[in-house]
């Protein structure tokens, strides 16, 4: 007979504190506050950050709450991403307001994190020894970011968790509940959109117009609540529901809601995955999805559109000697019923579809020298109004992302004054074979995919 999971009683009272932090004046899963909390180097949980290994996934599944108990520092961290961008064809009028047509230096972003145990190392002082046993089951990942391209602050990825352990049918289980603002943010694998490669890219380079809703289309615009369980280190199940946040709230946290896709009602999210250890690594196979009724551009006058995203993913990791290898696959198919958009003149077709595929191979030698390559493609229905700026109304884009990484402090950490700091220096090149329907041969509209090829240099500084 199945033994029911026993859940300890707890209160959601700390949520008011999180809301206050988010509204205070004011991208990244790998933050030094986690390493300080664990009293370990970044390589304990990552190959190269932000790629998680088995311990990193366990840390995330337990709600960012595992701790060595030695650090008295608050769970704060800072990140800077200074960069240089060169695109193959200069962008007339400037790559962005205040920037040159080409060859631009920028502070891509600067972020402040409150990440780790919700009450840091102070739970016993605040609640006593017994109260701390419950308080230390609450974890937080809160990021506020200065966008150096838009020159503005905004809230970024944010998540509050409660996590614990128990048994299901005699099998060990880790389970939790969460609130967050980005579907797939909670996922422990790097094969789903929120933490997929490449996590950082230039904000001053052209990018393809077509993307599925679940692949960043709702990030920081929605609020969601969900629950997950990981049984016997093998079966992972996750369900949640999301809804677009109030426009006034978004403006207060630095998000411009103008023209965004507004989820009406609740959009269910689901996730199932199977994981298995293999030698010093692991293999994972899974599926995920999101179904949403939406107002296009927040316009409710013509009813709703209906979007259904269904994804499949896989991740294989292997570690042998000084070598770390990670292979990732993500495939997403989106069905689009434009009941409102066609009426409003935003689409030609009543229904479309879009699908994307990403295949990534990441290699790290001696925890210091890395290389990664990704093949990506997106394609779907031709729609002259939906893709008005593309060649022949096509969403077709594909190409390669090549990246070299150097992590000089990955093994030893940064200066003793602020331990566990890290730096990743990256050289990234994106080559398009096709871009918004255009190939490498100029068409009659002057489109050429190669014009969008981009060289991007970045220093990812975290401390």
Main beta sheet: strand number and arrangement?
A: 16 strands, antiparallel, barrel
- Name the overall outline: globular
Order of helices and strands: HHHEEHEEEHEEHEEEEEHEEEEE
**Which strand order do you get reading across the main beta sheet?**
1-2-3-4-5-6-7-9-10-11-12-13-14-15-16-17
What is the name of the CATH class? Answer: Mainly Beta
Tally the beta strands.
17
Low-confidence runs (pLDDT<50, min 5 residues)?
1-28
Kindly report how far apart the N and C termini lie. Answer: 50 Å
What class would the helix/strand composition place it in? Answer: mainly beta
SS element count, helices: 7
The pLDDT mean sits at 90
Percent strand equals 35-45%
Q: What would you give as the CATH superfamily? A: Porin
CATH level-two architecture: Beta Barrel
Q: From the alpha-carbon coordinates, what is the Rg to the nearest angstrom?
A: 22 Å
Key attributes of the depicted protein:
463 residues, mainly beta, Porin, 16-stranded antiparallel beta barrel, 7 helices, 17 strands, 44% strand
Describe it.
The protein has seven helices and 17 strands. By secondary structure, it is mainly β.
Topology:
Elements: H1 15-23, H2 32-38, H3 54-61, E1 76-87, E2 104-117, H4 123-135, E3 138-147, E4 152-168, E5 171-180, H5 213-217, E6 222-231, E7 235-244, H6 247-252, E8 262-264, E9 267-278, E10 281-295, E11 305-320, E12 323-337, H7 339-343, E13 351-365, E14 369-380, E15 397-406, E16 422-434, E17 454-462
Antiparallel strand pairs: 1-2, 1-17, 2-3, 3-4, 4-5, 5-6, 6-7, 7-9, 8-10, 9-10, 10-11, 11-12, 12-13, 13-14, 14-15, 15-16, 16-17
């Amino acid at each position: 007979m199945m033994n029911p999971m026993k859940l300890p009683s707890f209160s959601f009272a700390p949520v008011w504190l999180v809301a206050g932090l988010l509204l205070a004046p004011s991208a990244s899963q790998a933050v030094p506050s986690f390493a300080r909390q664990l009293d370990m180097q970044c390589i304990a949980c990552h190959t190269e950050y932000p790629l998680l290994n088995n311990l990193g996934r366990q840390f995330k599944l337990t709600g960012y709450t595992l701790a060595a108990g030695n650090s008295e520092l608050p769970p704060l961290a800072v990140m800077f991403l200074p960069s240089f961008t060169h695109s193959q064809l200069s962008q007339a009028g400037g790559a962005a307001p205040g920037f040159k047509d080409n060859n631009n230096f920028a502070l891509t972003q600067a972020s402040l994190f409150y990440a780790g145990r919700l009450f840091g190392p102070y739970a016993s002082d605040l609640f006593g020894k017994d109260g701390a046993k419950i308080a230390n089951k609450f974890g937080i990942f809160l990021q506020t970011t200065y966008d150096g391209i838009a020159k503005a602050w905004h809230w970024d990825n944010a998540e509050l968790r409660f996590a614990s352990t128990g048994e299901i049918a005699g099998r060990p289980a880790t389970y939790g509940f969460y609130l967050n603002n980005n579907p797939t943010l909670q996922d422990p694998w790097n094969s789903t959109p929120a933490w997929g490669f490449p996590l950082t890219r230039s904000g001053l380079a052209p990018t393809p117009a077509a993307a599925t809703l679940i692949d960043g289309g709702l990030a920081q615009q929605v609020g969601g609540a969900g629950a997950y369980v990981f049984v016997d280190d093998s079966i992972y199940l996750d369900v949640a529901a999301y809804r677009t946040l109030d426009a006034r709230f978004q403006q207060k946290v630095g998000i411009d809601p103008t023209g965004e896709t507004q989820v009406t009602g609740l959009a269910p999210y689901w996730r199932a995955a199977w994981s298995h250890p293999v030698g010093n690594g692991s293999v994972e196979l899974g599926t995920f999805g999101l179904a949403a009724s939406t107002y296009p551009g927040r316009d409710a006058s013509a009813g709703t559109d209906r979007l259904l995203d269904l994804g499949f993913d896989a991740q294989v990791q292997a570690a042998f000697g000084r070598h770390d290898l990670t292979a990732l696959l993500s495939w997403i198919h989106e069905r689009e019923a434009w009941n409102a958009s066609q009426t409003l003149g935003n689409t030609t077709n009543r229904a479309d579809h879009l699908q994307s595929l990403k295949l990534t191979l990441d290699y790290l030698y001696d925890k210091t020298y890395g290389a990664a390559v990704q093949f990506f493609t997106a394609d779907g229905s031709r729609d002259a109004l939906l893709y008005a700026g593309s060649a022949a109304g096509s969403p077709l884009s594909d190409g390669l992302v090549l990246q070299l990484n150097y992590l000089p402090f990955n093994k030893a950490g940064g200066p003793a004054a602020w331990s566990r700091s890290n730096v990743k220096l990256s050289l990234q090149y994106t080559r398009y074979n096709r871009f918004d329907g255009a190939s490498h041969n100029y068409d009659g509209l002057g489109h050429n995919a190669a014009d969008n090829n981009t060289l991007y240099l970045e220093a990812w500084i975290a401390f």
